[in-house]
Structures are given as structure tokens and as C-alpha cells.
Amino acid sequence: MASREIVQYDSGLSRVFKVLAQVFLVIYLIWTVSPFIIMVGSSMKDLLEAFTLPRVGDWLGALSFFNFSPTFKHYVALFADESFGTYLGNSLIASVGSAIIAVVLGTSCAYSMSRYQFRGKKDVFFWIISTRMAPVVAVIVPLYAIFRSFGLVGTLPGLILAYTTFNLPFAIWMLKGFFDNVPYAIEEAAQCDGATRLRATLQILPLVAPGIGAFLVLCILFAWNDFLFATIIGSGGAKTLPVATKELIQPQNVQWGKIMAAGVVTTAPMMLLGLLIRRYLVAGLTMGAVKE
Amino acid sequence: MQKSLSASRASFSAIEEDHGYAARRLDYGPGALNEEPKRRYHILLMAPAIVTLAAITIYPFFWLIYMSLHKVSVARSDRWVGLDNYARLFGDVKFTDGWLLLLKYSALCLTLEILIGVALAVILNGSRFEKVLVTVFLMPMMMSPVVAGLVWYYLYNGTFGWYHWLFQSIGILGETSILADIDTAMWGIVIVDVWQWTPLITLITLAGLKRVPQDQLEANMVDGAGSLRNFFTVSLPNIYPFLLIAILLRFMDNFRFIDHILVLTGGGPGNATRILPVYLFDVSFQFFKLGRGAAIAFTLLIVTIILGMILVRIFDDPKKQAASGGAGETTDD
Prior knowledge:
By secondary structure, chain A is mainly α.
């Protein structure tokens, strides 16, 4: 990793800029991180402690936020009373299931698309990307009606299928980019050596394996974080973590401790996975338009 | 890193390049070595994905059109109403307001995200803490939007919310929570979107900045240009295609994700934050008027498809788009 050459600007104005920039950076950093700190902190606080604020304008008093004795009772209650274990399982099955389907079907399709030329290919591509970009609410309306008639509403297979609507196009689109970067000569060489076409195809899979792994994780991330599909298609038998978390908000009794704990439980695994595939994350979020 | 950068230039223009590459390949292509027809093999590999995708997207799309022409009810069978569902949309203030609010919401989000995101990228680029900070900035994007909404709902709370305390302390908010007031509720949801997605703009811009030719910057500085001039004359034209992509992606995502709005305001107070997708959600799944919902969904889909076409055009050839200076008129494809 060659270090970039840093151009030094040297004028009076620039120095002012530099200070301003640093202040801006610090403020932005605090603003990015503060919700996380407050979420984690509040999840480990007693109700009374969590609801204590300093007086308005008492900036130093804000530090009192860190003054508490941590308790894990909200986490315990989550799994004991609210059966979050079940929802965690649902979330896992639905997101991993759809991710596997998307990546398996997506890989073969992407390979084929990368190597094979046919009329209307551009249109097929546009169709694929458009299904990924469609507003979820608009997609859900007909999907809900169809799934209801097939008895898929409130089931995990229904949810997995629903997630496939956005994960499969994503996988095809991204993995094609990977295959495009693998020279066709490798397969040709294999075929010269007498390998069947399928053998030749399979042997380049290890070359793109890291990419496939990363996009498996990304598909899991997208499905795991979904709320709309889960709340409409999954309602009833297939409640996922985000839905269960939201349902902790009840008109009479909002259990903030539990909600924050549930937020941590929902967010933490994805944060770890996200860091794992950091390199691919931006490409994934922008559908490969931009890579770092 | 340099290698991956130049390789990725092609990512979306790959469609274009592929034409050349594959066309050349046809002569000594896959079929040349083995006897079996190459068509079948490739179509066989493609079929499962295409069939699945068609089953869960094209089939529902026709269902959507069917539903939009019917009065759909849970108990009785659907009744044909022709274009009635569409006609009623014109008299529906919430529908027209929904569009306006969606545009307002998107405009606010995009403006803030672009301004802050680009500024951040310029500051971060080449700085000592770049790697660490970029990693930290990735955090909000990995949070489920609905959880982000819940956390901010907590932060905005009028009695124990820390951000409410902050707003009061700097004197921009009184006793009422930001979400409870018709005038400020929109800002409440915009702030959450900006919090979660500004880093994406930063990352895209950073990727663009890495490709700004250093010699141009230096040549410009020899000519006596300051850093600000340098940014506008050299960097900005270079990152422009990236920004264009970022803007369209975020614009479409504003149509896509309403999770945090459902948590934060649910469209209220009054209808202050009932942007069209939220209204669509209400009509379809609060009142279960699926026929009318389908009609609204259809209008939303058409607009998104047009946006998608623009996007694909830009992906195809970012450079040319940048040169011709905009994407407004390239909706036909």
C-alpha cells in the first residue's frame, strides 16, 4: 500500500482552514459516535439513571452520563421475557437463507452473464438493477397479495423469498463485476487441457471466492437490517429482531432499557461483519459504482 | 490500492467494455473448443436466477397493475373499477402533498449530505487519521434503519432525550420535542438520514479524490492557485461523476427506506412528514386499501424506473455524462 503524496498548501488562509477543518472533524466525530455511546450506555442503566439529564446549558454536567453502575438486566429480560432468542433465530435463518440463495443463483448467473453475449443483454441488466432500486413499499403491495394467496405471509420461507427480491439482483450485479476481472484465458487453457466446460468454470471459482464471501455477508447485512418486509411479510410467525425491537414501543409502556439493549443485540453482529468486509462495503452499498 | 482503483473504473462501464471483449471472444469463444452448443450451457446457468427473479419481480409487477385497476378487499373477490383508483389520486391532497414532501425531504437530505460529506472527504483525504476515521464513519451505515430510528426517537425525547437537551442548550428548541412540532418534524427525520448516510457520500467522494491527478494539482499550485481554487478547478470536475452517482443513489434510497420515519413520526404531526412512501404504507397496510395502494405504488415505481434509467446511463459512462454536464434529459433508453 503505497502512501499517497500529500500536497502541502501554504498560505495564511489555509492555516485558518486547517483549524476550522479540525474543529469540524471533531464535532462530526462526536455526532457520529454519540448515538452509539448513548445506546450502549442506556442499555446498561437503571431507568432512573437513564432518564436523568443535566440542566439545560450545563455542558459539564453532560459528563454525568458516564456516571452509572452497569447492569445487564435489560439484556437478561430481553431473552427471558420477550423470547428474543426466537427472533434472533428468525433473523438468522431469514437473512442467511436468502443470502445463500442469492449468492448461489447469483454466482452462476453472473458467471454466465460475464462470459456470454446475447441480444438484449443491456435490457436484462437494466431490469436487474431496477428491481434492486425499486421502493420497498411499492414492491410489498403486490408481493403481499401474492404471498397471502400462497400462504407465505408470516412464514420464514416467505420472508426468505421476499429478501431475495433485493439480494439476488445485487449478487448478480456485483459478482458479474468480479468475473469480468478474471481473464477468460484461464478457462480456455483448462479446456485445451481437456477439461469439460463445467470443470473449466468451476476452477475459476476459487479466484473469486473472497468476493463471493464478502457479498454473502453483505446480503446477510441487507436482509438482517430490513424492517418493511419483515413487518408486512413476516408478521405473525416470522418476527425478526428489528420488528421485535420496534414492538417494544407500546403506547402505555415504553421500555427504553430493553429497546436499547435490543438495539445493541441487533446492531453489534452486523457491525462486526461489516468491519470484516470493510473493503467491499462501499462497493456493495453503491452497487459497485464506486470501489475504494 | 492503485491497481484496484484503475480496475474499478470499469465496474459499471463494464457493460460497454464487455461488448467489445465478448464480441472478440465469439470467434474463438467457449464453443470453439468443445462441440456442444455454447448457448445451452450459458442459458442453463442463467436460468435459475432469471426465473426466480422474474417470479418475484415481473409477476408481482403485473399483479400491481391488476390491483391498481381493482377494488381489492380481503373478504370479497376483487372488483374491477377501471382507472378509478388513479382518478381518485388527483383529488387526494395527501397524495400530491406526499410527492411534494418527498421532494422536500430528499432535497434537504441530499443538500446536507453532499455538503457535509464532501467537506469531510476533502478534510480526511490524505490526513493522518483517514483510515481510523473512515472505519468509524462506517458504523451508522451498518445499523438497521429502524434501530437508528428508535435510538434517535430516544435522543429526541422531550423529557430525557440527550439531543433534545442539546438543542435546548444551544437555544434552537423550546420545551416541545423536535418531532412534535409541525415546523421542525421534517428536520427531525432529515437529521437521522443525514447521520446515517452522510458517510456514504464521504466514502464515494474519497474514492473520487484518490483519482484526482496529483500533477494537475501541483501544476495549478505552481501557477499560484490556493487550496480552495484547486478544489474547484481540479478536484471538483474530477469527482463530479462520482457525486452524480452518489446523488442518484441517495435520491432513490429516499424513496426506498422509510423505516426510520415510521418509527420517528409515522407521518405526523398532522401530515408534516407523510412523504409519499409513508402515505403508500398507510393506505395499503393501515387501511388495507390495496387497490388504491397499488395505484400509488405504480406512480412511485414509474418515477423510480426513470431515475434508474438515468442512473444506468451514468454508470455506463461517467466521463461522458460529466462532460455533457448533467443527467436531466437522458431519460430515454
